[in-house]
């Protein structure tokens, strides 16, 4: 069976800028980083000093909204370890599902459309050797001989089916 992935291009200007900044920061020296942080610090303090009361209120409201969003994201922390098949994860605003169609810039890993660029290989700094044989703990889980391994197989089958809806496969 052969799977054909349709690459999804990053068209968002913000996404492009985020990737460019991430790549630039990964290669900058500590001295350059210190200078950049100092410039941003001076710029921020000047901006806050010159701000009108209305601008300060707007900034505070924006910060409160941002903090509220961060608190919502915390609810998803480690949720994969307690997968609930009755909960529709696609409806959560921070869950982005779709095909694994984007190639990493640094390695041949396939990624989701909005996945963090450095998640797979830390911007090319981590190179893992290819696996020569299946690790023993994984063989135990895929054997289906114990109750725990049966649960593992059932849960992973459900997740795999859900994620594979966007992958086009042909014989």
Could you explain the architecture of this structure?
There is one protein chain. The protein has five helices and four strands. The chain has 171 residues and is mostly helical. The strands form two sheets. Strands 1-4 form a two-stranded antiparallel ribbon. Strands 2-3 form a two-stranded antiparallel sheet. A hairpin with a 6-residue loop joins strand 2 and strand 3 (110-111). Helix 4 (136-143) packs across helix 5. The longest helix is centred in the middle third of the chain and has 22 residues, at 53-74. The protein is extended. The chain starts with a strand and ends with a strand. Residues 14-33 are annotated as: Disordered.
Q: Topology, pairings included?
A:
Layout: E1 2-4, H1 13-27, H2 30-50, H3 53-74, E2 102-103, E3 110-111, H4 136-143, H5 147-163, E4 168-170
Antiparallel strand pairs: 1-4, 2-3
Helix pairs in contact: 4-5
């Amino acid at each position: 069976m052969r799977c054909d992935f349709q690459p999804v291009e990053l068209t968002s200007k913000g996404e492009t800028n985020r990737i460019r900044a991430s790549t630039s920061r990964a290669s900058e020296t500590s001295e350059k980083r210190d200078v950049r942080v100092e410039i941003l610090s001076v710029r921020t303090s000047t901006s806050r000093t010159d701000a009108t009361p209305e601008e300060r209120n707007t900034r505070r409201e924006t910060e409160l909204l941002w903090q509220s969003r961060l608190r919502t994201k915390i609810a998803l922390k480690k949720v994969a370890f307690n997968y609930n098949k009755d909960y529709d994860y696609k409806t959560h605003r921070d869950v982005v599902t779709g095909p694994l169609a984007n190639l990493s810039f640094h390695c041949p890993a396939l990624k989701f459309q909005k996945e963090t660029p450095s998640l797979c290989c830390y911007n090319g700094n981590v190179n893992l050797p290819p696996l020569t044989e299946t690790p023993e703990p994984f063989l135990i889980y895929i054997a289906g001989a114990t109750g725990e391994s049966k649960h593992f197989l059932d849960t992973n089958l459900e997740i795999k089916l859900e994620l594979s809806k966007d992958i086009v496969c042909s014989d």
